[in-house]
Specification:
single chain; alpha/beta; six-stranded mixed sheet; globular
């Protein structure tokens, strides 16, 4: 069975969150949900996430999972908030603890933080499957952007996070800790080996050259048109392109705020003695 899919664009971070559900049983999942965060004021809010809850409620949906394709560096995850509000389970890729361990060191976190994935209800391995209503969610490991990236294959739809963008914007960067261009190339070619009509859903869009925002494409379109990795681009050429492009990119604005929340399953650090929670900014580490 194929899911109904609704994308929700979060303008401040150019991110897309997804609601995918079985139209027969009305059971579904939320993927890559965003928490509102004003980094200038250090203030969070849940308006966007509440909109996802309302969209599910209006359609009479039961949300079974709140899923992440990876530990995001460009937005704060609403996974913890939605898990609590919806009574859903949380999931992420099996290699998330590798990223947690790396950023535990960067943030100099103490023994209170366990980099073992225990912040999530399930760590999905490559090829693992779970049922949602009449749908089957199958996990495909797609590392390269980060070592822990996975894609969720649900019927004819694949949610691949940052691995691919729209064809005119190309592919994900590979210069984060644990990222690797050759690995990303192989992951993308694995996605692009799926049937040509497979629907592909990306986690970001930036509307280059004034193009309207978009987030859905197909395997056939990506293979024909992607400016970084269309058919005929070799692994060596792709790796060279990514190294050259990545060297020109600035760090995402929210990376240092986002990752210390996202490694905790979308939760802030515990409040200190004055009742306020604090985010740490490590200097000269990235």
């Amino acid at each position: 069975m194929n899911p109904d899919v609704i994308g929700f664009f979060h303008t401040p971070t150019f991110s897309v969150s997804y609601l995918a559900f079985d139209p027969a049983t009305r059971h579904g999942v939320l993927i890559d949900a965003v928490l509102d965060y004003d980094h200038k004021a250090g203030r969070s809010s849940t308006g966007f996430a509440d909109g996802l809850i309302e969209a599910a409620r209006m359609r009479g949906l039961t949300i079974e999972w709140v899923l992440e394709t990876h530990l995001h560096a460009d937005h704060l995850s609403a996974q913890g908030y939605l898990k609590d509000k919806l009574g859903a389970r949380s999931g992420i890729g099996a290699r998330a603890p590798e990223v947690q361990a790396n950023f535990k060191t960067i943030y100099n976190l103490g023994s209170e933080f366990r980099p073992d994935g225990s912040q999530f209800d399930r760590l999905f391995a490559d090829g693992e499957k779970t049922a949602v209503g009449g749908l089957t969610v199958e996990v495909m490991a797609t590392p390269g952007h980060t070592p822990a990236c996975i894609s969720y294959c649900i019927g004819d739809a694949v949610f691949h996070g940052d691995t691919l963008f729209m064809p005119d914007y190309g592919t994900a960067r590979c210069d984060f800790p644990g990222g690797d261009g050759a690995t990303l190339y192989r992951s993308i070619r694995r996605i692009l080996s799926l049937p040509p009509e497979t629907r592909l859903f990306n986690c970001h869009d930036y509307g280059p050259n004034g193009r309207p925002i978009a987030w859905e494409t197909t395997v056939a379109v990506q293979r024909r048109d992607n400016i970084h990795i269309k058919d005929g681009v070799s692994e060596a050429d792709f790796v060279t392109l990514r190294k050259t492009r990545d060297a020109t990119l600035e760090a995402p604005i929210l990376i240092l705020s986002a990752l210390q929340v996202n490694i905790r399953g979308g939760r802030f650090p515990a409040p200190e003695s004055n009742g306020t929670a604090y985010l740490k900014i490590p200097l000269n580490r990235l």
